[in-house]
Automatic annotation (TrEMBL):
<protein>
    <recommendedName>
        <fullName>Integrase catalytic domain-containing protein</fullName>
    </recommendedName>
</protein>
<dbReference type="InterPro" id="IPR001584">
    <property type="entry name" value="Integrase_cat-core"/>
</dbReference>
<dbReference type="GO" id="GO:0003676">
    <property type="term" value="F:nucleic acid binding"/>
</dbReference>
<dbReference type="InterPro" id="IPR012337">
    <property type="entry name" value="RNaseH-like_sf"/>
</dbReference>
<feature type="domain" description="Integrase catalytic">
    <location>
        <begin position="9"/>
        <end position="199"/>
    </location>
</feature>
<dbReference type="InterPro" id="IPR036397">
    <property type="entry name" value="RNaseH_sf"/>
</dbReference>
<dbReference type="GO" id="GO:0015074">
    <property type="term" value="P:DNA integration"/>
</dbReference>
Length: 252
């Protein structure tokens, strides 16, 4: 297996290097007429940070380059400037090169470092038929689809509107950015879980679960009367984790 690209492992501000893709469409109610409801299509652009693994989703009305540019400008207005963008060779991405003042960089043309510039956006296209090179943001797109499908099922048979779809997309972002991005510690004294949302907001989310120990007289006779801490190796991290256990005490 080859090494990860440099933009995946180089520290930097969130969303400095992103992978983008489009998914959809969904039918939303455009307007009400005498004959019924008129529907139109909506698509979504997902921006996946390659370093912090955070995600951002914007809704667009069509698959034109101008719609993508508007979605990209909304994204940069919220998340800040972008240095490098990776994507496939979508027609709306290629058509937006001139309007975005971006420099197209094709991986098979040579080293990426030769095309590095001090200012502007560098847009790197993956070679054709190489979806495996976009696995980091393809995975995020799949997760966003599954979360959105669950939300649409919970809505039932109600008609989907543009406003509701945009709200759903931001809720999808919140769920994606709240997932843990490192092995979870089983130590109750270390409840902090690092997530993309923590890196974006600089806020630590503490768990509110408090372990309480209620031992009956019968259980005290069986297993002992005192609780002590012992390092117990278990979990995916493979290191001893200190857990509060009950030590068996012999009577007499």
């Amino acid at each position: 297996m080859a090494n990860l690209p440099a933009d995946r492992v180089t520290p930097g501000p969130p969303f400095s290097t992103v992978g983008i893709d489009v998914f959809g469409p969904w039918y939303v109610v455009a307007r009400k007429t005498r004959g019924g409801l008129a529907h139109s299509k909506r698509w979504a652009v997902i921006f996946s940070c390659l370093t912090t693994r955070a995600a951002h989703v914007e809704v667009k009305e069509d698959m034109t380059s101008s719609a993508f540019i508007n979605a990209f400008l909304r994204f940069t207005s919220i998340r800040g400037p972008v240095k490098e963008v990776r994507s496939d060779r979508g027609t709306n991405f290629v058509g937006a090169l001139n309007d975005l003042h971006a420099n197209a960089v094709f991986i098979e043309d040579g080293p990426v470092g030769d095309y590095m510039q001090k200012s502007g956006i560098k847009l790197t296209f993956n070679p054709p038929h190489t979806s495996h090179m976009a696995g980091s943001w393809e995975r995020m797109k799949g997760l966003a689809r599954r979360i959105l499908e669950a939300m649409l099922l919970s809505q039932g048979s109600k008609e989907l509107t543009h406003d509701v779809l945009v709200t759903f997309m931001y809720e999808v972002c919140a769920i994606l950015n709240s997932r843990p991005i490192c092995p979870i510690s089983y130590d109750p004294d270390n409840p902090i879980i690092i997530s993309p949302s923590m890196l974006l907001t600089q806020r630590c989310t503490w768990t509110t679960y408090h372990l309480t120990y209620q031992v009956s007289r019968r259980s005290i006779k069986l297993c002992g009367s005192t609780f002590r801490c012992y390092p117990t190796p278990f979990g995916s991290n493979g290191v001893p984790v200190t857990c509060r256990t009950c030590k068996r005490v012999r009577s007499g």
